[in-house]
Batch of 3 targets.
Target 1
Amino acid sequence: MKVLLHICCGVCASSVVERLMCEGYTVTGYFYGPNIHPHDEYDRRLDAARAVAREMRFDLIEGKYDRERWFEAVKGAENAPEGGKRCEICFRLRLEAAYRQMRKNMFDRFTTTLTVSPLKDAVLVNRLGREIGGDKFIIADFKKKEGCKRAVELSREMGLYRQDYCGCVYSQEEAIRSRERRSRENGNADRA
């Protein structure tokens, strides 16, 4: 069965592709991340996805980097907390694009790497996937069976770039604030 796998980054793709191939699927990746900010971050993640595709020998379709469409979609949800309404909009946007690619290229099914992250709500992602694609969407929680741990192992083996935030400018800002907060706390702990 031919499956189109929406890919958010190379790290997440590694263990998901491995699992899908072990389950007998013929995988084609679809890298689509209009949310990724800034552009050089997008390039690093795309390069990592390309490296995984070469290493694991699967085809990779590269979606359009359409930041304007993403900003338009999340307008009004900019201040939503990480994991909230903005993320739901973002997941839907990317899954809709994957569904269109699946239909255009006549794949049997589609799914996403999004559920391999322990920070992503697999129930939400799977609900959106089913709303968009019905039974064409493969419901999965790829973080289970140590999927996230395996992704980290494979990314180390392949020497992949590993990001420290989800991708959008808002999650980047939140990651920067968290690093600064930890730095201040560590500085205070050193003085104690």
Target 2
Amino acid sequence: MNSIVLIGPPGSGKSTVGRFLSKRLDRKFLDTDELIEKKTQKKISEIFVDEGEEAFRKLEMIVLEEVLQMRNCIISLGGGAPIKVEAQELIQSSDVFVVFLDISLAAAAPRVGFNRDRPLLLGNPRAQWQSLNEARRPIYQKLASLSIKVDDMNVDQIAQEIFPAYEVATK
């Protein structure tokens, strides 16, 4: 087991925790959403508008395959990245430690801000977030090596939960 993969809904802190762990463990940090934007030279919201969600999910799967082949990294997945069965199978067959950053809507709302850069949250963002989370939560739980309820935790506290569990899992 080498890389740590962070999963969870928008606003759970995947990128923030990922960058923190990357510095603490002196490992490369990879954010699949950032990699997609770099690869396409477009914001994710533009991809959704111009090409549709299905085109975005195909790009996301390509990037997921690439990052899961890298060793000793900290990887932050977009909220929808592990939803397709193929993605779940790929994650489960990879030698990675998966951390589900679980968060409530009340705690996520101030972090997310429900802005236009989150195309699946347009319309009624709170209801959309809740609906997506209800559908995705069982998948996150199934994939997780470790689940952490992060509502009242700062990044250092979250890392302190991850380190010992990761150490045990890698022995």
Target 3
Amino acid sequence: MLSGILQQNPSDSFARYGLAMAYLGEGKTDEALAEFRSTIERNADYVPAYQMAAQTLAKHNRSEEAKTMLTDGLAAAKRTGNGHATSEMQALLDELEIGY
């Protein structure tokens, strides 16, 4: 269903993010990360994509990539005034930087 929506409207951030989350649920990490990145490329202020991509990267021991995603996501969260996401992403970035 989400694929159909995206065929009609490839820039639908919500559908693309939903597809990424579905891929995660199926254990398709690489596909999920590709969709998160595609979401961000099409909508640089779609904060949840940064956050979930960073969490996924961190979970798979890809800390440097996660840190980059978090840094970019923090900038997007500040641009959009998303304080909740800012605090969550900063906490994860802090954990990654001290090596938890």
